[in-house]
Structures are given as structure tokens and as C-alpha cells.
Amino acid sequence: MKVKVISILEDNYMYLVIGEQSRMAIAVDPAVPHRLLDIIKREGLSLTAVLTTHHHWDHARGNETLVKEVPGLRVYGGDDRINALTDKVTNAQELKFNSINVRCLFTPCHTLGHMCYFVWEDDCTDAPAVFTGDTLFVAGCGRFFEGTAEQMYHNLTEVLGTLPQETKVFCGHEYTIKNLKFALKVEPENEKVKQMLTWARARDDDDKPTVPSTLIEEFEYNPFLRLSEESVQKFTGKTNPVDVLRVLRKEKDNFQKPKERMPPQAMLALQWDLLGASSCLPKT
Ligand SMILES: [Zn+2]
Description:
Layout: E1 2-8, E2 12-18, E3 24-28, H1 33-42, E4 46-51, H2 57-60, H3 63-69, E5 74-77, E6 87-88, E7 94-97, E8 100-106, E9 115-121, E10 129-133, E11 136-137, E12 140-141, H4 149-160, E13 168-171, H5 176-186, H6 191-205, E14 213-214, H7 215-221, H8 230-236, H9 241-253, H10 264-274
Parallel strand pairs: 3-4, 4-5, 5-6, 10-13
Antiparallel strand pairs: 1-2, 2-3, 7-8, 8-9, 9-10, 11-12, 13-14
Helix pairs in contact: 4-9, 5-6, 8-9
Bound molecules: zinc ion (ZN).
Zinc ion binds next to loops.
């Protein structure tokens, strides 16, 4: 099973999961549809399904075009607000596309219909993959736009945290450097955080993605998965893991807020938010 990482918009990722034998492809959050279709054509793939993690425009806006351009294409997701949704999925539902298996993992909080997708291929020794959207990031977690710390705790520790440790983590945004800077503030003595930050900066210099990570690595440097560590508890002044998580996310919300004027795109997204429409600010 091959996963193609495609950088789009300001800092989003869309993905293509490709069956090695079948050349069948599944897209995850394909928000720049024509670019995706070019790749599909160039590589001789057939696009069978779209998995949407959540309804925010920078994840779901490509669905409508893809459904028009690809006859019979199915669009899966856990929220009625997702553009061009054809199949609403529920927690633990399993989908099969030829040799590729998908287990839907309901992870409400960033949005109330957020789904992560755990993917593996039959008769394949590659590690499985999890597409975490805006729930789990490399070294961070998503904002609690529509949910609570209790929900995010459940998502991170009981849903995602219990997947096989070698699972590769493909998240929705490239926020790794900023997340690691925050992780270093939380745990200034954590050597793994320092190593990762050096590595992530080198990747950034080469314009290369920091995805995928693995779950086992995330447990070493991601403060949002280290809620029982003494250092993380000390930073938050709390010991109950849900309280630790709540304080961590609040601190992250206020960490290095950009001082410069917001780009027009973000302003527009904010205006939509104020109007009660759905949006996702480019930076979380
Ligand atoms: Zn989002």
C-alpha cells in the first residue's frame, strides 16, 4: 500500500492511498481536485472513493468537483455538512475497496462529525496508516471548535492511542515546527522534542513534509499524548488527564499568536465563522 502525500493550499495535506496491485486509489481530504485528477491520470490510477475527515472547507471543498468529474465516485464522511457526501459512516464501520480496508474512527471535538480513518491492505507487510485530519497532528492536536476536552481525551488516548504502535500517522496540516516549539515550552528537558525540532526544521528547509510519523514516536514528543508525564502535569498545574489536556490546548491557543495582519483568506474564514457558517482557519 502506497500513500502519496500532496501538499496543498497554505499548509494542508491531501492524500492518495494506492493499492500496489490494483492501481486503485482512495483520496483523503482532496481539497484541490484538479491537481488530484492530474495525478490520477498521470499515474494511471482509478479513483474509487473519497474519505473526508471533516466538513471544513480546506478538507471537503474538492468533493463536489470530483463527484462531477468521476462517475460513480463515493464520498464517505461522518457529518451531513460535508460537501457532496454520498455515504455517511459511523464509528467502527469497515469499508473495503479491493484489497484496501478502512475502519472509520469517530473522533468528535474539532468538529462534531470528525472521522479518522485507519487503513491497511490485505496480504501486505507495510505498517497500517491512520488519517487523522484535524484531530491528531504531528506533535500536536486540533482545536476544540465544537467539542470538549473530555471528547478529545477519548479520541487521543482511547481511539487513536490504542491503534498498533507502528501505525503511520498522516495528519491534515503541516504544523509540526510550531507544535514542537510549543512542546518544548511544555517540556524543556525532553530530548526527543529537541531532536524532532532540529529534524523538522531541516525538512522545512528542503520543502519536504514531516508526515508520516508513527504513533510510537508521537508518544515520545507530543504533549497531548503525554498527559500522565510529570513534566506535562507540572506545566499545566493539573493531574487529572482531562484537566491537563484542557489547559494544554488553552495554552496552545494563545501560543505565539501571529502579530501580523491576518491574510485575506483567514479574514474571510473568520467572517464565515461569525455568520455561523462552517470554516477552518488556515492556522490552528
Ligand atoms: Zn478543520
